[in-house]
Amino acid sequence: xxxxxxxxxxxxxxxxxxxxxxxxxxxxxxxxxxxxxxxxxxxxxxxxxxxxxxxxxxxxxxxxxxxxxxxxxxxxxxxxxxxxxxxxxxxxxxxxxxxxxxxxxxxxxxxxxxxxxxxxxxxxxxxxxxxxxxxxxxxxxxxxxxxxxxxxxxxxxxxxxxxxxxxxxxxxxxxxxxxxxxxxx
Length: 185
Hints:
By secondary structure, this protein is mostly helical. It has six helices and no strands.
């Protein structure tokens, strides 16, 4: 490893303090989830909502937790991130939730796991919104398909969503499987 001696390098006026290193370490730990999700999404040829939804929920929960940080820099950084995240969350959470409901492995159970953590007291209302949207989509589909032959869709057997790219089990699965009647996938 190449070490820079600030006494010999004219660009550097001071070395990072112990506090600076601690701050850098804390920020890196916080941003690790974004690194992991970016690797997963960029390494998947056909990312689907059953992959996206749990990861986006984990990001949402992490941001909610970071807002409570006593560190003012972390709090300010998170507040800015939350504003941007919530702008998109409102648009995509319903669509992704429908994808999860249609996934036979999760159905409504994954919403029952994540939504109380995300929406707290309002989770029932949010789940009802997803159910209503599903019903509306079914009605619309029925109207469009009257007189047409149904075509079956096949799931891509090559996608394994039960593990991260590095082979580790996703942490959210353990909690989800404890609260629902699933076997750990």
